[in-house]
């Protein structure tokens, strides 16, 4: 089966969050399971520089305002997976994030930049961009790639089935309706049953309405986005496709995130030999200038600093928790107000709080390895990867019970502790007091070394690899292709 993944990020080349980690690992797991997998990425500078042996597949010429657009085919460094890159210097060759300039403003031509991504995917599916390799499945990720589903739906002879994965419904790719003509799609799409969303043009809707199947990155989030509370205004559209929406929980890259072989951490360890974890903890406290304190609950947070992540809840109860013996080590970037508030917390509590505003992958590994607990107090969380990195490193997650956090963490209730299934600590209300109670519960369990050690063992032995999710995607693809074949034969007949 030929599978084309279409996305805007891939670790380690371009990463603003978990999407990049997923794109680096899921296609590889699928290829290992026997699928013929390729990637389609925009030719952002880091991608153009890193992809190996790129050659031109087709000279596309001028489109979407760019005079020179070429489709290249090369190989990913590391995995060696074949990757198509869209070389469109006018649209993609620029610094900053894939979506925003250095001032945090959306690039003004994002409509053209990401419409082009979907448009090229559709041409690959239609066999006219690269007749040597025609995908059976086009798997588009988030709004950046969603237009692929609309363009493919417009080209009815295309035999590819489309899967659209929602990694985060809050980012929707909304544009002015005035820009509609640039998309080059039929005017019938210019309606609420098409891409219109409250007078704007929504790329997210291109995926939600036109993909043959929509997945999200956890079963709980799949249920949540059909509700008003989590639906970001799109719950109606999602409910209308309820038979074609499902959740497949993300895995993690267990080779990149492996405490037994991790070159970034002070001392390697595994579930049988945890002395290395204690060494990582001490090394982290020393590196960050935190008090060398064995009794503290050393809690880390590795996160985008946005309202999604519920960090304001932590700020509101931080003082009391520090007083009760918490140490906090945080790394992240995002909302300037949150960055400033955490910087101030560090100044106010030297030795107890360390804040690194920025993102550094090796430091993320040291934080996850050295901490006792990792907090993810999100308001909503489609899946969440850092709590799974925590599980793998015996760093117990403290999470709000939403989305993928609910699906991956077993709260330390008396029953779960008694039967050895507990892996972390969960709370429900999005309030500082609920979070504070939950962290205090973690402190209380840590004061019982046998109970804590039991949880660490259970956490570290969870099955978190991509093998299971890759199998679920394969089953979905097969079902979709069988449906397509059935539809085609009934039309022929
Ligand atoms: P999200 O994708 O919503 O940020 P996830 O938990 O799925 O949340 O993924 C976060 C991933 O991104 C982790 O690998 C984490 O280490 C990394 N990360 C966290 N903060 C940042 C940041 N500010 N910039 C880049 N990557 C980050
Ligand atoms: C998004 C979500 C996050 C998820 C990630 C990868 O960025 O916010 O919860 O883990 O995508 O699917």
Overview of this structure, please?
With 493 residues, the protein is an alpha/beta fold. The protein folds into 2 domains: 2-251 and 467-492, 3-Layer(aba) Sandwich (Rossmann fold), CATH 3.40.50; 275-460, Rossmann fold (3-Layer(aba) Sandwich). 39% of the residues lie in helices and 20% in strands. The protein has 18 helices and 18 strands. A 9-stranded mixed β-sheet has the order 3-4-5-2-1-6-7-11-12, sandwiched between helices. A 6-stranded parallel β-sheet has the order 15-14-13-16-17-18, with helices on both faces. Helix 10 (311-323) links the parallel strand 13 and strand 14 (326-334). The chain is globular, with a radius of gyration of 23 Å. The site of adenosine-5'-diphosphate has 17 residues, from helix 1, strand 13 and strand 14. Adenosine-5'-diphosphate is lined by residues 15-19, 21, 302-304, 332-333, 359, 364, 383-386.
Strand content: 15-25%
Radius of gyration, in angstroms, nearest whole number: 23 Å
Q: Describe the sheet with the most strands.
A: 9 strands, mixed
CATH architecture annotation of the largest domain: 3-Layer(aba) Sandwich
Query: Looking at CATH, which topology of the largest domain would you report?
Result: Rossmann fold
